[in-house]
Structure formats: structure tokens, C-alpha cells
Amino acid sequence: MSIHKRLAAAICGAAVTASVIAGCSGSSSSYENEKKERSSVISLASITDELGAGWNCGNTLEANSGGYPNETVWGNPAVSQELISAVADAGFDTVRIPVSYLGRIDDNNGYSVDSQWLERVREVVDYCYNAGLNVIINVHGDGYNTVTGGWLLCNESGQDKIKEKFQALWRQISEKFSDYNEHLIFESMNEVFDGEYHEPVREYYNNINEYNQIFVDTVRASGGNNSHRWLMVPGWNTNIDYTCGDYGFEFPSDKGNTAGENRLMLSVHYYDPWEYCGVESKKTFLWGEKGQEIIEVNKASPKNKAAWGEEADVEEQFEKLKKQYVDKGVPVVIGEFGCIDKTLANSGIPEQIAENRVYYNGYVAGTAAVNGITPVYWDNGYNGQYGFGLFDRNTCRQTQPDIINAIVRAVSDKDPQAGK
Q1: Catalytic residue among 50, 182, 336, 355
Q2: I need a surface site. Which of 160, 169, 245, 397 has the fewest CB within 10 A?
Q3: Contact, 59 vs 158, CB < 8 A?
Q4: Residue 136 maps to which CATH number?
Q5: The domain containing residue 340 runs over which residues?
Q6: What is the DSSP string of 357-378?
Q7: In a domain, 420, yes or no
Q8: Does a structural domain hold residue 100?
């Protein structure tokens, strides 16, 4: 997720006190002593059903201050077993944990990663295992041009050193988790591009392709369960069009895979239409058929409705992914989707705006499920105006139960209308 999507959480960080940072970690979890029984093998045939509905633990392990990762610096409390168990109790099956390394990598010591930071990542992964969840970890903010200390930059010179560093990083991550079974998935990187919103530059796209190949080869060579672990790779900025179209994306080869069947997945993101999903400055708080219904019944202005990116567009994009990847035996994960809370954008119809938001998230999740695609909601931990939060991370309670229920039901029932 790009840096401008994080501002709301970052702003609230200064007000967080030490007692709040402690979060809800004091209570015990029903999952701590009793893990769910499940198979350690996730086959190609079962992967989408196994992953189910997903949730992002965003703005946490990828948070940083001045290029140095710090779990609580953007205002969220440290992740606890109780939070992750609450996510499992809500019906989610998969947790994606964005992770930044940045200044935790010692460039002068063979790119050695801070052992305490890697151990903390493992601790949070263990929370997910304790709750019977699947978990995805990635290299997140290291690839942003907008982040201090960003280094995985496809548009920079000195690519040999960048690739050497990337290989060293994934070697250490892989070795740390080599004995974890297939319920842990590695994702190579997040939204890597040159930072300019234009069509991909072929030279830079080639670097992204090489990053993905280095990632796959390094993980496979690291031994243990990494020889058959599921791996996720994105294209240019996780953009669907730039991944499916003729823009230069090359899916990596996987010669080291010992599973006897495909173990690579495609990672994309979906925040369309952005004016509805993420722009705070516009009063675009209505979307799709539900939005039109609100205009007709509640006399809302048509100007408040997104002008594009409606139901047919969601269907077209996901059908494109199905045809090009899912139908050819390559699972697809929408690693991030969602829309910010604009219920206060119009004080006259906050309930209707909230209902429209439920409908949007259910429609995206359900349409993904219909096409055999795994949707993973972006939660940045911020609740309130323009936030993405579904849980209060200090109390571990749901703040948006209607959205949670819509996403979970939309996936389990393969029903885009689950939130209507």
C-alpha cells in the first residue's frame, strides 16, 4: 500500500500513550493452548478454499520512522495473540503480515538482518499458527520510492547490488522459517514500480521480473519446507492491467519446486475506483447499484456517486485474472482491497454511506470468490473518518461487524450480493 494511504494512521500515532501501546495483550486466548487440526499440505486444488477470506495486519510490522522499522510508530499497538485470535473468531482464514526491513538490514555486514526483528516477525507468524490461520509475509516498504531508506527500487542504478541485497534478505527469511509448513506463504514484495503513475517502463519492469526470479530461486534453494512452499509474486505496482496486459510482466520459473504441481501464485491489489476507495478530498461516497438506490430513495446528489469502476468493471477485471491465471492453474490473491470510511462525508445520510461501504466490500470479495480468487482486506488499524480499520486493536473488538460479515459470507457463499 502506497504511503499516502497511510497518513491517517500515522497522524494518530503521536497521541498514542504507553498504556495504549500495551494493547489487549494481557488476556489469554482460547487458541493459545489448542491449535486447530488441519493438514500441513495445501494442494493446488484446495488452495483457494483453504485461504478463504483474508485480513491484513497493516500499518504495523511495515511501519517505520526515518527508515527504521518500528511496530508501533504509526499509532497501532503491538500485535497480540488476542488480536489475531479475534480475527480468526470473526471468520477470516488468512492473515497477511506486511513487513519492512529497511534500516534493520546491515549493508556493511553482508546484509545481515537484525535477529530481534526477524524473531518478532516469527512471533507474529506463530500467533497466526496458534489461531489455526494461514499467514502471508512479504517484503513491504523496502520497495517504495517514497520511504526513507527504500532500496528495492526498480528505477535506480546499481541493480547488481540491489539484487544481491534482495537475495541475501530472502535467504535469511527463508532459513528462519524453513521448518514451517505450507500454511505460511511468502510474497516477494509489495507495489514495486518507479513511483510514477504511467505505463510501465520495460527496463524497470525487467528488474521487477528479475526480483521475482531471485526470490523464487533463493527460497527453493534454502531447504526444508521451502522446496514446496507456496510463493506469491506481483507485477508492476500489483496492477491488474499491467500484469495481464502486454506490458512486460514475466511469470518466474520454478525449477526448484519439489511439490509435483504448481506452487506459485499471483499477487494483485484492487482499490477501484480510487476516488471512492481512497480519496479523502472528494465527496465520492456512493458506489454501484446500492449507491444509485440511495440517490433515488434518499435524494442524495448524483455527484456523490463514483463515475466509473462499478459492478461490471469488478467482474471484468476478475474474469480477466481468472482466464489468464486461475484457469491455467495459477492461483490469484488480491492481497489488498477495501475502501475508507466516509460516513461523516455527508452528515445527512451516514447510515446509508455505511451500508454502501458494506455493499462494496462484499461485492469485491464475492466476485473474487466466484472467480476462484482469494480476497484479503486492507486494515490499517485506524478507525474513524477515512480509516480502513475493522477491529479496535487496543480492545480486540470488531468495529465494523457488518463489513466483516459481508466479506466472510461473500467468500464462503461465493455471493457478491452478501453485503446488500
Answers
A1: 336
A2: 160
A3: no
A4: 3.20.20.80
A5: 3-413
A6: HHHHHHHHHHHHHHTTEEEEE-
A7: no
A8: yes
User: Which entry of 191, 310, 311, 355 is annotated as an active-site residue?
Assistant: 191
pLDDT at 39: 77
**pLDDT tier for residue 48 given thresholds of 50, 70 and 90:** very high
C-alpha span between 40 and 179 (Å, rounded): 11
Q: What is the CA radius of gyration of the chain?
A: 20
Whether 282 maps to a domain, the answer reads: yes
For residue 19, what pLDDT is reported? 33
Average pLDDT on 247-276 reads 98
Enumerate the β-bridge partners of residue 65.
68
Active site residue 62: no
> How many CB atoms neighbour CB 152 within 10 A?
25
Does the active-site annotation cover 261? no
Copy the grid coordinates of residue 325: 491465471
336's enclosing H/E stretch is strand 332-337
| pLDDT, tens digit (0-9, with 9 covering 90-100), for 207-244 | 999 999 999 999 999 999 999 999 999 999 999 999 99
The H or E element containing residue 97 is: strand 94-97
Domain count, the chain: 1
Q: Kindly state whether residue 418 falls inside one of the protein's structural domains.
A: no
